[in-house]
Every structure is written in structure tokens, then in C-alpha cells.
Amino acid sequence: MLAKQTPLTKQMLSKLLRASSSKPKQFKKIHALVLTSGLSVKNSLLTQLLEKLILVGDMCYARQMFDEMHKPRIFLWNTLFKGYVKNQLPLESVMLYKNMRDLDVRPDEFTYPFVVKAISQLGVLPCGFAFHAHVLKYGFETLGIVATELVMMYMKFGELSSAEFLFESMQGKDLVAWNAFIAACVQTGNSAIALEYYHKMCEDAVQFDSFTVVSVLSACGQLGSLEIGKQIYDRARKEDIDCNIIVENAKLDMYLKCGSTEAARVLFDEMRQRNIVSWSTMIVGYAMNGDSEEALALFTMMQNEGLRPNYVTFLGVLSACSHAGLVNEGKRYFNLMVRSNDKNLQPRKEHYACMVDLLGRSGLLEEAYEFIKKMPLEPDAGIWGALLGACAVHCDMKLGQKVADLLVETAPDIGAYQVLLSNIYAAAGKWDCVDKVRSKMRKLGTKKVTAYSSVEFDGKIHVFNRGDQSHVQSKAIYEKLEEILKKIRNMGYVPHTGSVFHDVETEEKESSLSHHSEKLAIAFALINGRPEHPIRVMKNLRTCDDCHVFAKFVSRLTSRDIIMRDKNRFHHFRNGACSCREFW
DNA sequence: CTAGGGTTAG
């Protein structure tokens, strides 16, 4: 490498650094050379060295180097902060900040974007407040970049109103600030708000770009707003916005999340280029829509094209097996992952949850339980939750109780699990147990999520709760519902009162059932929607048995397709049958 | 010399 007698020069060091692309061992050698050479090396060179170490993720060595420096200037501190953020070490970042202040080093405008991002990663709100105060103290809150980071931080903490307030009070918001906020809204499940801000952005005459389009399309997918999504995409095309593969993937996903598998497939086949995200989106989408055969066929096609699946692709494949009850195929794909010898492709907790779901849904509850006990990872709430869900489907009270007890310990704040358990008790007629669960929930303060359904019409999202009378067309909706119920009763519809988990008389049960949010949404769509269009209903939770039967009858009665997306999957109702074949 | 935004899954 280097001849010993050659004196080391700074130029040579620079060259060496550039040559040693990403081999941490070489950095250490070079660093040793620097230390022994006696050269007074400028910080700029050390910064280069630091940057390289950060790139390969050797933060320990980077820190060691930093600590050996004499009075490092603020930009070196910043470089280290950057490294901690890049390598997801928020705690180290906070400690470094403390060191910095102990040494009376004054942070500059570049410090806070890194530090605030670290706090977002750390996820401790009081810490966030403290850093916000520091930002104010040094007068950096007027800087767009720092303010944007603060907004993102509050969004990540679920402090939507704080984030909104901060965002609104930003002066001269640029495109990136808008995009960041809209994206954060979508990522935190506030898609309706994301669309609001997209419109505000247009009013403010800020020209949107492809980043905006991706977030808005994603929002439309979440909301099931096919028409709004199409409009925005067409507008982007008209305004010559670069619709790259990420935009196309987002559009593909929107179609699938709105239940338009055919349109999605046309788009997929026409795409100029497809990457692993395109394929995975399509496979996951088919699985969600109950088209397991297409999902698995596409997986095979992808492999034939020589593309390597990633862990998301396998989630799609496994959920396709789960929705179709393909136990053996699911096991085969799961083993494919285990045997792949690819570290990145080893089954993760989500895959185990998928397998538990697959086994449990097929009635193999004991096998699912054994599967969990044997898994090499620590089972989390999601995995036990999958088993509890299966216990609910198959009314297994004994195992259900056992699993629910485990869940109370690991995830006491998730009301959905308690609701599942109380549903199991209710189905068995154990009302005293139902009451016990309810009062326990009250005591612990666990809330259940309120069920709602939504329908897009005339560029707006119409939301319905159970027994909702707040809609302007409420009277017409209830009349329509009565009319339909009467007609389908003559066709043989019998209300499935098992879906009511309260200890009340049959008559009351029926009236409670008939006002479920899905039914109101369907009635609304029948009044307003065009007969040639399918009815699209989005539900935030799993749909109940009675609404499922109801939708089947309505699809036959009215000869309309009903596409219902619930929390887990799609139900495509046509002429009295559902695509899920009663397996959900 | 350094800083903020996007797609699948959760």
C-alpha cells in the first residue's frame, strides 16, 4: 500500500479517502496513519473521514474519532448529529446535545434539523417540547427547514392540532413544507385532512409536484375515493408533472385500495417499468381483494422474470393463501422464506401473524397455538391478536380466554382485543362475562374504536355511524333502508341477530342491526349513485355477518355490484354472492 | 463542507 519512507501529505490522504469507498477497516488504517504522521490535519479532512464512517454505519468509531479531536467546530458536531439520525440512534443524539451544551458550544441553524428529527425517532413528547423551546430560544423557528422538522415531529407524536397550528403560522411556506405536511397527514391516517390541505395549497397558488401527487393518491386509496384520485392524476398529467414510477405505483395502489382490480391490472400491464414495489403492490392488492389465484399467479410470473421478492411480497403471498384457506400452500411459501438463506427474507413477526391467521381461520386453532409457542421470535400483540380473532370466528371460548389474558398483559390499551373477547362470550350467551370485560375496559380506560362506513359521492366523502341521523338526506336514507329490508325479507333474508353483542330482546336486536353504518352507506349510495356504477363502501372495522348477508341480498335485488372494503379485505358482492365465499 | 417531502408492508 504505502511505502514507509514516503512522507504522508494531505493530498495523499484525500486521495486515499476517495479510493477507500466503503471499507470501514481501511478508514481505521487511514485514521491511524493520520494520528501517527504528526500532520496537523485540517478538520475538513476529518469531516470527510467522519462522513464515510457514518455512511457505513460505524458510529462507534466515528464517535471515538470525534472525541479525539481538539475543540471540534460546530459543523463537526452537526456531522455527528447527522450520523446518529441516519443510523437511527436518537438517544445518542440527545446525549451528544447535552455534551454540547455542557461545553458551552452554541448550536447553529444546521443543528436543529438533525436534533429535532432525532427526537421524532426517540418518540418522547416532553423531550420534543424541550427542544422546541430551545429552537425558540435561539430564534431558529422562523427557518422553514427547522419549522418543517418541528411540524413533522408533532405529527409523528400524534399531536395533529399542534402540528397544524405550527404549519399554519409558518411564513412563506415552500413546496417542500407543504409536501411534508400532506405526506405526514396521510402517514398518520388523516387522509381527509391531507386532501383539505392539498386544496388549500392550490388556493395559495403553490404549484404541486410529483411528491404531492403521490401523497394525494395514497390519501385517496385510504379513503376509497377513486374519482378524486383519478382527477388529481389527470391534472398532474395535464400540468406536465413528471409521473415517475413512484407516482405510477401510488396510482396502482389507489386502484387496488378502491377495489378496481381490473383497472389496476390494465395499468400494471401498461407500465413502462415495474420494480419490486409495483409487483408487491399488485400481489398484496389481489390478495386484499380476495383474488388469491391471481396473486399467486403473479408471484410465479415475477419469479419467472427473475425478480427477487422481498418481505412485503411474501406478506401478500401469505395473506393470499390465508384469504383462500390454502393451508398447505401457505406453509410451502413460508418454508421458502426460511430456506432462502437470505437474511433479509427470514420471516418477521408479520409473517408469523399471517401464518397464525391462516391456520386459525381454517380452524386449526391448536396448531396455530403450537406454532406460536415454537416460533424463534418473541410473539407480540399482533400475533396473539390473530389467534384471538380466529378464536372469535370459531367461537372457541376456552382458548380465547387464555389468549385474551395474555393480551391484557402485553397490550392493555388496545380495546379491539377486549371487544373480541366480549364478542366470544356474547356468542356463547355468557352475558355475565361480557359485563365483566366491559367493566374492566371502563376501569382501565380502554376505548373501542367507533365503527363507521364511508361512501364517495360528488367529490366528497360521506361518513356514516351506526344509527346516524346527521346526514342531510337522513330521512330518505332510512326510508330506502326500510323499503329494501321489506323486499329482501320476501326473498328470504333473516336478520342474523347473533351479530348483536348485547343482551337485549330479539326485536331490539333487529332494529339495532338494521341501522349499522354499512347499511346506511349502501342505502345512501343506492339513492345517489348512478345505476351503472358499482357501490363502493369503506368500513374502518371488520364487517358483521348480518351486513354481509344484507349486501348479498341487495346485490341480487338491485342487480348492482357492491364493493365493500373492511379492515382486513374486500368483499365484492354480485348477484347474491360474495367473492370471499364466506371465508373471512 | 452540513438541513426539510413520496410508493408496497406495519
Please characterize this protein's 3D structure.
GO terms for molecular function: RNA binding; zinc ion binding. Residues 492-584 form the DYW domain. Keywords: Repeat. This protein is mainly alpha-helical and 584 residues long. Among the domains are: 173-273; 370-449; 453-459 and 470-578, no CATH class. It contains 30 helices and 6 strands. The protein has helices spanning 10-19, 24-37, 43-56, 59-68, 74-86, 90-102, 111-122, 125-137, 144-156, 160-168, 175-187, 191-203, 210-223, 226-238, 245-257, 261-270, 276-288, 292-304, 311-324, 327-338, 349-361, 365-374, 381-393, 397-410, 415-427, 431-444, 474-490, 506-514, 517-528, 545-558; strands at residues 452-457, 460-465, 535-539, 562-565, 570-574, 577-578. A 6-stranded mixed β-sheet has the order 2-1-3-4-5-6, with helices on both faces. Helix 30 (545-558) links the parallel strand 3 and strand 4. Helix 11 runs parallel beside helix 13 (210-223). The radius of gyration is 28 Å and the shape is globular. The structure holds one DNA strand of 10 nucleotides.
Mean pLDDT across residues:
90
Number of E-state strands: 6
Number of helical segments? 30
Distance between the termini: 65 Å
Pairing-aware structural class of the strands and helices? mainly alpha
Uncertain spans, ≥5 residues at pLDDT below 50?
1-5
- What share of residues is helical? 55-70%
Radius of gyration: 28 Å
β content, as a range? under 5%
Please summarize the sheet with the most strands: 6 strands, mixed
As laid out across the biggest beta sheet, the strand order is 2-1-3-4-5-6
- Based on CA inertia axes, which overall geometry fits? globular
